[in-house]
């Protein structure tokens, strides 16, 4: 379970500003988009408003959806190999809130010109509250990455030395590697971070503009704990033969939980004897 690629939370502004794409050496190794704050994105989780859906396929369906967050617009493509997502988009009323877990994809029409998009793995309906929660969580994580990049800039180090330095400060390996790669690639990180901080502040303001900050905090704190949400989702998904880990994670991400929160909740439930893993990737509830 722990070897799955993290589904990063990244605002559209930062994702669309990404121009660094790297591939691991082995044939089946994942590909990554490195963002200006060092997120090493293979998978990402977004919640936003679908503002447009168009079938751009010729001969077979290929849906292009534009999903807006407060900072910009993500582009999502769903074709014959994403049949469930394609059906979802074909029947979707615009505008609608949706949650997407998907793979980062790039298109490079010419050297130095990169366009990023998302290939959906899971698409679900969402609502304004889930979107607001995603904005606040994504804002927090974005500012945390920006702080790591600021530390990287001040260190005067690069490449392996920078990775080791950041790891020694408790930065996780994926972000340490991404930060080192970003610092070597992007030319004006300081300027971008200033611009990004403004975008994040505006995004948070859109959440609170619909009500007082205290009202929002009370609404969020009143939500069920990740453990309770996970237990309920497992109870629904496990109809007798267990539930796939990936399906459980996707269903809970659509409710606003992060993959880290789900994994932590699963460990708690296992420790309490409320679920177990009969085989890798399958979870069963204890009756």
Structure description:
This protein is of the alpha+beta class and 287 residues long. Among the domains are: 134-220, no CATH class; 224-285, Winged helix-like DNA-binding domain superfamily/Winged helix DNA-binding domain (Arc Repressor Mutant, subunit A), CATH 1.10.10.10. 45% of the residues lie in helices and 27% in strands. The protein has ten helices and twelve strands. It has helices spanning 12-16, 83-91, 128-155, 159-168, 173-185, 189-208, 213-221, 226-237, 245-253, 259-271, and strands spanning 7-8, 20-23, 31-34, 40-41, 43-55, 63-69, 72-78, 96-110, 113-125, 243-244, 275-279, 282-285. The strands form three sheets. Strands 1, 5, 6, 7, 8 and 9 form a six-stranded mixed beta sheet that branches. Helix 3 runs antiparallel to helix 6 (189-208) and helix 4 runs antiparallel to helix 5. It is globular and about 55 Å long. It starts with 6 loop residues before the first strand and ends with a strand.
Task: Give a nutshell description of this structure.
Among the domains are: 134-220, no CATH class; 224-285, Arc Repressor Mutant, subunit A (Orthogonal Bundle). With 287 residues, it is of the alpha+beta class. The radius of gyration is 19 Å and the shape is globular.
Topology of this protein?
Layout: E1 7-8, H1 12-16, E2 20-23, E3 31-34, E4 40-41, E5 43-55, E6 63-69, E7 72-78, H2 83-91, E8 96-110, E9 113-125, H3 128-155, H4 159-168, H5 173-185, H6 189-208, H7 213-221, H8 226-237, E10 243-244, H9 245-253, H10 259-271, E11 275-279, E12 282-285
Parallel strand pairs: 1-5
Antiparallel strand pairs: 2-3, 3-4, 5-6, 5-8, 6-7, 8-9, 10-12, 11-12
Helix pairs in contact: 3-5, 3-6, 4-5, 8-9, 8-10
């Amino acid at each position: 379970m722990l070897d799955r690629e993290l589904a990063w939370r990244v605002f559209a502004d930062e994702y669309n500003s990404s121009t660094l794409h790297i591939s691991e050496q082995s044939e089946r190794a994942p590909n990554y988009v490195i963002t200006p704050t060092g997120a090493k994105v293979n998978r990402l989780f977004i919640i936003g408003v679908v503002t447009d859906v168009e079938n751009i396929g010729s001969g077979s369906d290929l849906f292009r959806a534009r999903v807006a967050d407060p900072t910009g617009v993500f582009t999502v493509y769903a074709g014959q190999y994403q049949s469930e997502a394609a059906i979802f988009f074909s029947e979707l009323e615009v505008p609608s809130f949706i949650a997407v877990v998907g793979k980062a994809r790039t298109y490079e029409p010419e050297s130095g010109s990169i366009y990023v998009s998302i290939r959906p793995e899971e698409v679900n309906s969402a609502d304004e509250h889930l979107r607001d929660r995603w904005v606040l969580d994504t804002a927090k994580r974005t500012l945390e990455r920006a702080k790591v990049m600021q530390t990287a800039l001040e260190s005067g180090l690069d490449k392996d030395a920078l990775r080791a330095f950041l790891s020694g400060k408790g930065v996780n390996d994926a972000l340490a590697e991404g930060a080192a790669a970003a610092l070597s690639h992007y030319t004006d990180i300081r300027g971008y971070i200033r611009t990004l901080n403004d975008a994040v502040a505006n995004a948070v303001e859109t959440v609170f503009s619909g009500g007082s900050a205290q009202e929002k905090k009370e609404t969020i704190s009143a939500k069920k704990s990740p453990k309770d949400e996970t237990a309920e989702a497992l109870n629904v998904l496990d109809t007798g033969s267990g539930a796939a880990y990936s399906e459980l994670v996707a269903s809970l991400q659509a409710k606003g939980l992060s993959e880290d929160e789900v994994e932590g909740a699963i460990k708690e439930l296992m420790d309490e004897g409320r679920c177990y893993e009969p085989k890798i990737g399958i979870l069963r509830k204890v009756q």
